[in-house]
Write a structure and sequence with these properties.
Number of helices: 7
Distance between the termini: 65 Å
Largest sheet: none
Order of helices and strands: HHHHHHH
Shape: globular
Structural class: mainly alpha
Number of strands: 0
Amino acid sequence: MNTAARPAAPDAGPDRGPGRLDQLVARGYPAAQKALVAVPLLAFAGPFASIRPGSPGFPYFYRILFVLGLVVAVPLFLTQLRRRLFPALFTVLVAVWIVWAPVSLLWTSDRAAGQREVLAGTSALLGAWVTLILTRGSHRSLRYLRWGWVLTFVVTVLVVAWEIVSWRHLGELTGAVEYWA
């Protein structure tokens, strides 16, 4: 049996208190946990939830929320969750995707479409990773996420009802209609 103690992190110790990463997690996690309510709704809304609704390429609120969540999720994973099996396995999956997806562009016939697909897949996987890490498996976090899905459903029903009654597509109002070829 190995009884040697592991060395403490340089920014943590009995005299120094918690490390910088632990402080970041302690400050940012409660707000990030509550922000899980908005994740499904903002992901659904996409370009319509931005400063200029429907503007392609403009930073959507979902993307801004995603980056803020990433700032909290990475330290949370590194300090508390990296030894849990499911977050560790999902992290490996995301890492393999991040390495493999750009390599797949070598044999694509349409490089621009391939880059969009790789970026969309990477964003989706990283968004799922951030959500997984921020929930930490706690009931409160999952409840916030569930309420976010309920809110998204209600908004979706309202948008669909408006489109049926008005015979107009929401994208027509903002100029964000995408025609599929």
